[in-house]
Amino acid sequence: MRNTNTAKDHYIESTFALEDKPLSNVVFTLRLDEAHMQISPIEGKTLQTLIKMVGAKKIVEIGTLAGYSSIWMARALPEGGRLYAVEVDKTKETRILDNIKKCGVADKIELIIGKALDILPTLEQYGPFDAVFIDADKAGYVNYLEWAEQNVRKGGLIIGDNTFLFGAVYGDNSRGMKPEVIEIMQEFNERLANPAKYTSIILPTAEGMTVAVKNF
After folding, report:
1. At 176, is the secondary structure helix, strand, or coil?
2. pLDDT on residue 3
3. What is the 3-state secondary structure (H, E, C) of 91-159?
4. Which of 16, 58, 173, 204 has its CA 20 to 30 A from that of 75?
5. 93/114 Cα distance (integer angstroms)
6. Of 75, 60, 160, 69, nearest to 110 (Cα)?
């Protein structure tokens, strides 16, 4: 979520998460009702740093919106690295392709349009993957986790965004989230919190970002 209005956020963003012009322009390719859904520069740089730390070469992103998060991560990939970006909304295809081209990472990102649960099995031939980033429909998070657990290498990353579920996972359901979706997100977090399988934490971003290193 693009929420960097505090002095602290501005300091972090201006010091560590500077955007170049093509990247900053990505938000302007979104409709007004979509812009709040895009991750912030701080979250983008966090993803980029994590990807670099594990030496990722192959990434799957489930839900890319306008390509902003894809671009941050792709810029951390080495030559020959590949990010498979899955997006359900075909109306976004042209915008996404234009954004990644203008940001200079078209050779590293393969955009695939369709339902994630249909597409993910077709990507298994390219695995195992170094990281999976989940930022799609919240009701699907456990299903996406099931796939990621089978297709991310040992020592790789599973990352989920919006994992506070707007506060609902810890009791603040002012947004009126459905009980079954709350249970799904709580299960997602609890499974990734299992120390027998993961080294993990929820980063306290505006909407929560769960980061887990797979230990098995």
Report:
1. coil
2. 54
3. HHHHHHHHHHHHCCCCCCEEEEECCHHHHHHHHHHHCCEEEEEECCCHHHHHHHHHHHHHHEEEEEEEE
4. 204
5. 10
6. 60
**Closest by CA position to 211, among listed 15, 54, 63, 16:** 54
Proportion of the chain above pLDDT 90, given as a percent? 92
What is the helix (H) or strand (E) element at residue 202, kind and residue range? strand 198-203
Question: Can you read off the two tokens belonging to residue 156?
Answer: 């790789």
| The pLDDT of residue 31 | 85
Distance, CA of 47 to CA of 70 (rounded, Å): 9
Q: What angle do CA 137, 58, 16 make, to 5 degrees?
A: 75
Residue found under tokens 């499974």: 191
The pairing of strands 209-214 and 198-203 is antiparallel
CA–CA distance, 179 with 168 (Å, rounded to integer): 9
Average pLDDT along the chain, 216 residues, taken 10 residues at a time: 74 96 94 85 97 98 97 98 97 97 98 98 98 98 98 98 97 95 98 98 96 98
Amino acid at 80: G
Query: Is the Cβ–Cβ distance between 131 and 159 less than 8 Å?
Result: yes
